Amino acid sequence: MSQVSSGMMPRQAALAIGDLLDRCGQIQAGQHVLIVAALDGLHGGENLVDEQAVSWVQAGVQQRGAYANVLWLDMPIRPARIWSPSGKIDGWKLPPILKAALASADVFINFCVDLSFEEELKEVPELLAEHNVPMVRNMATTASLLSSVWAQTPYELVSEIRLRAAANLQPGAHWTITHQNGSRLDGTLGPATSGGGYGEARTGYRPFPEGVLPRLPIRDVEGEVVFSSTNPIWARHIGIPTEFSAPVHVTMRDGFIKDFQGGSEAAELRDFYATLAKQFGEETYRVRLMHGGVHPHAHVRRDQCPSDAYRTFIEHHNWNSMHVHLGDARRNPQFPYNPHVTAELHGATVQIGDTYLWKEGRLVSADDPAVRAIADRYPDRPGLDVDNW
């Protein structure tokens, strides 16, 4: 195993780790903090990580008077594609050692894509709820990513962009999504998924860097969405590329997906949903959510992150990206996953009632005076001016 130094840290990474632990994680002296990473990510696996990043975060936890315990998981071996046309669905279970470790943790800092809250196993949020442990999802999982402009952007700034975007939304409001590629959807906004409303602050689940608008439940969806890419995690699980060979056209009526048209990816999506619906019912086709990115600098260079899929995952959080969640098999207790198949749109216009969320790809809340006031407090950090960083 390579030797790792916790002392030789660039200032860029120190700024990011300060936000990760203080503003996002809210680490306090005396807490028992569990830091989890996966061994496969050191050697080309999906759970991208390096030992230096883990060491820096561990040292930062200790400097704050908390107890830092690192757990390197040997993840289960399993196929990337989770289904077959014959009807077989491959599930997997969390390593038992993780469950045992969480039982005595006050905070969980998670470096693993495979242990994500919204895109992978339903077992993850269920386990966190059982032990009442907040999860800090550190997506800047390597030393290079911790040193990136993406990670250096003030956490407080991106959080305010997120909160302001959702602050004035009301259940029952009519919404529309339009795009120059021919997409047009409309419907009504459903109730917030928690009692705090759409624009609530993060508590149990705390992603770093902060990245997406609160999930907005949608009902009575009508129209067509045209898209050429989807979330890389679920592209891998379905067996399609993240970037499609031809645009996929999805027709929606009365809140349900009615058809997929396009090239080979449309055919794969059609077969995937038909297989799920056969086992788990027509709710598989329900269109449940829309939201999108709020981070002004959610993109990194290839030399900072060689993984094409992970760079795409980061860009999913950029403030010019919005998406619609396709399907809702997660409600069936026999299906182990939180499906996160998304219709990704860059440059969309989204209006809810009298409020615009995006106008031709520009996130309107970025112009809020409260957001600009926070940006002004960080003159030496990446902010709302995306051209100079």
Structural features, described:
- The structure is a single chain.
- The protein has 389 residues and is α+β, with helices and mostly antiparallel strands.
- It has two domains: 139 residues, 3-Layer(aba) Sandwich (Thermophilic metalloprotease-like), CATH 3.40.1830; 223 residues, no CATH class.
- It has eleven helices and 16 strands.
- The strands form two sheets. Strands 5, 6, 8, 9, 10, 11, 12, 13, 14, 15 and 16 form an eleven-stranded antiparallel beta sheet that branches. A five-stranded parallel beta sheet has the order 2-1-3-4-7, with helices on both faces.
- β14 and β15 form a beta hairpin.
- The chain is globular, with a radius of gyration of 20 Å.
- The mean pLDDT is 94.
Give the DSSP E fraction (strand runs of 2 or more residues).
Answer: 15-25%
Number of strands: 16
User: Would you tell me the overall average pLDDT?
Assistant: 94
Determine the fraction of residues in helical runs and give it as a percent range: 25-40%
Radius of gyration: 20 Å
Total domain units: 2
Q: Which structural class matches the secondary elements? A: alpha+beta
Largest sheet: 11 strands, antiparallel
Q: What is the terminal-to-terminal distance?
A: 35 Å
